[in-house]
Amino acid sequence: MALISKKKIIYPIGAGLRRYLTHYGREVDIPIHYHELLRYTNSIALYDSKEQDTYWETVFYDQSDREEIHQNVKKIYALLKAGGDLSVMEHLYIDRIDLCVFGNTQPFRVRMVNRINDNFDYFYIKNADASRVYGLELEDLLSPNRISYLVHQNTLIEEHIAGIPGEKFMRLHMSDPNLNPIRLAKEFVKFNERCFVRLLGDMHSSNFVIDVTPDFEETHYRIRAIDFDQQCYESKKSIYLPQYFKENNALIQLGMDVITPESMRQYQREERALIATRVKSSHLELEDILQTMENDQLAPQSHVDQLKNELAKHYQTKDFLKCSSMGEILRKSLSLVSR
Q1: Which stretches does DSSP call E strand in the chain?
Q2: Is residue 304 within 8 Å of residue 324, measured between CB atoms?
């Protein structure tokens, strides 16, 4: 069982990471920052359609501030979705702004609605944490998923990642007669492998979503991480393996029921081959981000020392013991895949 004993340390964005973000167009000037959204005057608990507490609060602003705040937040949405083209804002309005008081970075979630067709979208405004930014960038480079995010000073802007929350999927959809158990179990094996290779931790059922795509013959599944705070932070190898979280037991048991050990090893090899291909295709960006990570503090030194020893034992190579930072451990992990 994977256990995280203490709340994660928040690391600010350093000069090296800032240069990387600027060079690759992730650092942009935005009209409103996270701390300005904290000027709300009131809030109420947000409940879902079944009257269950979502642990988000809808916040309200003074009339004198609200129009300016909403206008600036819409400009951020235009930057995130349309490269700053303000014409996309013409038919949009902000339905509500929610605050998650339990999150590490206490993010704001903005619900944007198109008044013509009532179509809606979400995006997030957060305190920037270097670990999360590294996680987002590595997700964009090494996973089958593209990620849209922007940074300015200490504010992080993220797009919404659509899908059924893992906890909800396991609770409500596992008995669906249209479920394809082998495809779902295969995707969990591949997701488990992706997280382990790129050292993304804490992937229990509340931190990923399942994207379901019906096809003309079969249903396809994609498991996508939505929380990147634990990128290269934890000291225990098991934290980087979703298979060790009790919250994921329904998916774990499904895999044990429908996948043979031989098939599982095949899926693991397939995913490592795909990661190796992404490493080669994103060589310049990946080399830049790894060099930056190697010179950045992403975890206490005790975490680095324990993780490199556990991975040296897991892979049966002493090369990990030479690592002195989380960035170096990640480089070694990726080099094993590339071989």
Answers
A1: 42-47, 53-60, 92-100, 108-114, 120-127, 149-152, 155-159, 164-165, 208-214, 219-225
A2: yes
Predicted confidence at residue 3, as pLDDT, reads 63
- 255, with CB counted inside 10 A (0-12, 13-18, 19+), is buried
pLDDT in tens, 22-71: 999 999 999 999 999 999 999 999 988 888 888 899 999 999 899 999 99
Name the one residue in this structure whose structure tokens are 């895999």. Answer: 255
Type of residue found at 176:
D
Question: Of 149, 169, 151, which Cα lies nearest the Cα of 159?
Answer: 149
Q: What's the pTM? A: 0.94
Structural tokens at position 282 = 């994103």
Domain of residue 322 covers: 164-338
One domain, residues 257 and 311: yes
- DSSP bridge pairs for 313: none
Of 113, 129, 159, at which residue does a domain stop? 159
Question: Mean pLDDT across the stretch 284-291?
Answer: 97
- Exposure class string for 265-292: b at 16+ Cβ within 10 A, else e: eebbeebbebbbebbeebeeebebbbeb
pLDDT recorded at residue 18: 97
